[in-house]
Amino acid sequence: MPRSTVLTAAGAGVLVAGGLGGYTLWHQHQQTSEQDDGARSAATSFARAWEERSLEKASYVGTSPAGAAQNFRTATHALGDGPVSVEVGKIDRSGSTATATLRVSWTLADGTKFDWDDPVPLATSGDAWGVKIGDRSLWHPKLSANDAFAVNAPSTATRGEILGRGGAKIMSNQTVYDIQIDPGKATRSSVQQLEGVVSADPGSLTGKLRQAQSSGSKAAIPVITYRDSDYASRKSRIEGLTGVLVSERQQPLAPTRTFGQPLLGAVGPVTGEMIKDHPDRYRAGMYAGTSGLQAAYDQTLAPSGGLSVSPRSNPDQILHGSKPQNGKNLQTTLDPKVQGAAEAALTKTGKTPSALVAIDVKTGDVLAAANSPSYGINRALSGRYQPGSTLKVSSTYALLTKGFNPTTKVACPPDIVVDGRRIGNFEKETLSDPTFVEDFAHSCNTAFVQATSSLAPNDMHDAALALGIDQDWGKQLGVPAFTGSVPPTTGKVDQAAASFGQGRTLASPLAVAVMSGSVARGSFIPPALVSGQGGDRTPKPLDANALSQLHMMMRQVVTNGSGTVMQGTPGGDVYAKTGTAEFTEKGEPVVRAWLTGWQGDVAFAVMVEQVSPGQTGGTVAAPVAKDFFTRLRTG
């Protein structure tokens, strides 16, 4: 046989053997690929069914699709109906079983995403792959077979409280009732009835209902929040109204709706503007501080942690977020008794805006900051007013520290001309051959113009600064406030006006009270209202000789001067200085009345924003101060 034939045969044998082996390897690879594809297809089908929340569409081994779907609904119900993303990651297969790692991202009610990797077992049933039901949950590796997710909402934690002196509860957590309208169920008739119950303007709530129904909005329409006592008197008329929702929760409340307002502030639903300014902090449906201390210290008072997710069987195991923590209390220096007396005293001013600040003489702590009316601006702390003759306390301190003798005779004519400008006493009053002590007691402007004319431009500014006006004590106070402004004088007329608290001088009631507290104490201490804010509060001693003379003069105001209304005030001797500031508003003369001073351990300032011509600090502000101390000492 030719060699070539033998070689061909041998070669043919080799080719046949190689062909059989290659087919086997190819067939095995084909089977492996089909198995892998089958497992991935089953995992992908399961992932899509999960995203669509239609778990009956997937294939299973060991249970029916309906059973798996029901188990899914039970286990994940607490997570809400937010968007879900499920992606198929790595698949580890061994023969007819496999494990698919699914990357799950579930958007919760607060907008955060709960992300986890879920190892899902797969197996074959016949030639088909499906999700295998075993002895653990399909939905999370840390859930047991029949377990479920539990969601801990921020509402499970409480807001911190605002405390006063000695731990007294200024704003404590109490039950409130939120009244809302369900636009999908409410009727025009039921909402009209609600308007009457809550004293809303006729048509205001029905208009909101109409707008919501026209737009197809399903969001509840907030109406009002009642404290327990207010809701109790309306409960029978609210419950049963079609589409009117009532929900109960806890919220910090002051003893009354007006107590401590606007200083303390309020808690309410977050506004669109708040969400826009702080998207990482606020979300629709949340409650937060909306004004005053509640807003300024919202991060301290608010519960922390947001939504958290845990297994229902093990609430302490946090799978997402952090467990809600109660807010921290805010400690203030306010004294409920002093605050209450201040607010009650301000009712004497009727509809005229007014403020009263009280300060502890020993410590410099703010005991009360009362405003009337209780809504609107915080006049007590932030008001910017010409302090009038109350600033003569500071002007006199400037004189006394420069060696001026208060027994010096200083004439008190009804008016005086300064650099071509006529300056007069409030009611053109005059005194006969007075000493400066008498000028002070009767608050003679013209005498002060003469006495201070020789002071340097910085002298009255420096004296006011030493007593606490125009100093930067915002950090120690812990809340925004106007500390006053007594700038160096720029000429004779400016100096004359500054000597009796007019011209460019400005102060808040708090700043005036700080001044009186410094005189009473003998040193300046920056005031504090929110405790623990830091900053130096070391007392800064004042001129003892000047203060001794000033004490005598301020007592003379009460015993034989413009503040005689304060005589007989319960609690002991009162030291005071009246103030009457004049200004023009819309072309008409306006008068502002002041009284400041101290009695025992309490320094104070009273300001009544506008009074009738002829009325003064001694006739309007002094009765308020006397009523305040009477309530405080005898109440």
Write up what this structure looks like:
- It is found in: Membrane.
- This is Penicillin-binding transpeptidase domain-containing protein.
- Its main location: membrane.
- The protein has a 5-stranded mixed β-sheet, with helices on one face. Strands 7, 8, 9, 10 and 14 form a 5-stranded mixed β-sheet that branches.
- Helices cover 34% and strands 24% of the residues.
- The termini are far apart.
- The chain is elongated.
- The chain has 3 domains: 109 residues, Nuclear Transport Factor 2, Chain: A, CATH 3.10.450; 162 residues, Penicillin-binding protein 2a (Domain 2) (Alpha-Beta Complex); 233 residues, DD-peptidase/beta-lactamase superfamily (Beta-lactamase).
- The N terminus is likely disordered.
- It contains 20 helices and 23 strands.
- Helix 3 packs antiparallel against helix 4 and helix 12 crosses helix 19.
- The protein is of the alpha+beta class and 635 residues long.
- A hairpin with a 2-residue loop joins strand 2 and strand 3.
Any key phrases for this structure?
635 residues; alpha+beta; Nuclear Transport Factor 2, Chain: A; Penicillin-binding protein 2a (Domain 2); Beta-lactamase; 5-stranded mixed β-sheet; 34% helix; elongated
Task: Categorize the overall geometry.
Answer: elongated
What is the count of distinct domains? 3
How much strand content do the residues show?
15-25%
What's the number of extended β-strand segments?
23
Uncertain runs are 1-18
Count of discrete alpha- or pi-helical segments spanning 4 or more residues = 20
Cα-atom radius of gyration: 39 Å
Give, in spatial order, the strands making up the sheet with the most strands. Answer: 1-5-4-3-2
The CATH level-2 architecture of the largest domain is identified as 3-Layer(aba) Sandwich
- Classified in CATH, the superfamily of the largest domain is DD-peptidase/beta-lactamase superfamily
**Termini distance?**
137 Å
Please give the CATH class of the largest domain. Alpha Beta
The fold-level CATH name of the largest domain is Beta-lactamase
Return the structural class: alpha+beta
The chain-level mean pLDDT equals 92
Q: Estimate percent helicity.
A: 25-40%
Q: What summary fits the major beta sheet?
A: 5 strands, mixed
Subcellular location: Membrane
Domain Penicillin-binding protein transpeptidase: 356-628
Family: Belongs to the transpeptidase family.
Region (Disordered): 303-330
